[in-house]
Amino acid sequence: MKIVFLSAGAREKALRGIVEAGEQVSAVITPYLSDSNRRFEGVINTALEYGIPVYPVRRNGVFDAVRKAEADILISCGFSFILDEEVISSVKYAINVHPTLLPKYRGYRSGPHVILNGEKKTGVTVHFLTPEMDRGDILAQQEFEVTAFDTVKSISRKYQELEPSLLVNVLKKLKAGRLEAVPQNENKATEYLEMRTPEHSLIDPKCSIEELWNEIRASDPVDYPAHFYVEGQKVCIRVWRPEKPDEEEDLI
Question: Global pTM?
Answer without folding.
Answer: 0.93
